[in-house]
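Human: For the file, kindly provide a plain-text protein record giving the amino acid sequence and the backbone structure tokens, at your earliest convenience.
Assistant:
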Amino acid sequence: MATRKKSVEAAAPASTATGAIGSPHYLDHLKKINDIYYDQIRIADQKAAYIFTFMLAFLVSSAEGRGVFKLQRYLSGDPLAIALSAILALAVVVSLVSAILVVLPRHRSTSTSLYWGGWPGNREVFLNANASLDQAYLFEQYLGNVDNLSAINREKYRFVGFAFRGLLVAVVTYVLLLGAGVSATSSL
């Protein structure tokens, strides 16, 4: 493992403090990482939208789904119906809230010239780097953007995981409720 780490360090581009970068392949690789991370953000948002849409459709179209949010269900006295209804309600809420948290805008404390929201603060730096032909600037910008996109992706996919698990629990619990013969109208 130590040998691999040394070889990775040896292959890394020269320090940007010297103003030099290594092989242009490193910059190309960072550009590719940026593209992939942008796509992954879009995919996370799409997954959340699908889960959210499915859960809303379930609540709108299913009397069982709506029934778990009615007090009468919990006053029925049937412990199985109460437990399954509470689990289903919690799973639906967790799934919906998590899906919403996926698509909320993400803000990072730092930005690069690659982010439109950070452009006003990065415009002058960009122009100065261009005027001095600072090769390290481009590498640093892509590297900083990769760091930001990575953090955003980790946060988004954490909530996608919660939303998906909530969806799975909701589906399984719904099937168990149907199998147990508990209906939304039986507790009225």
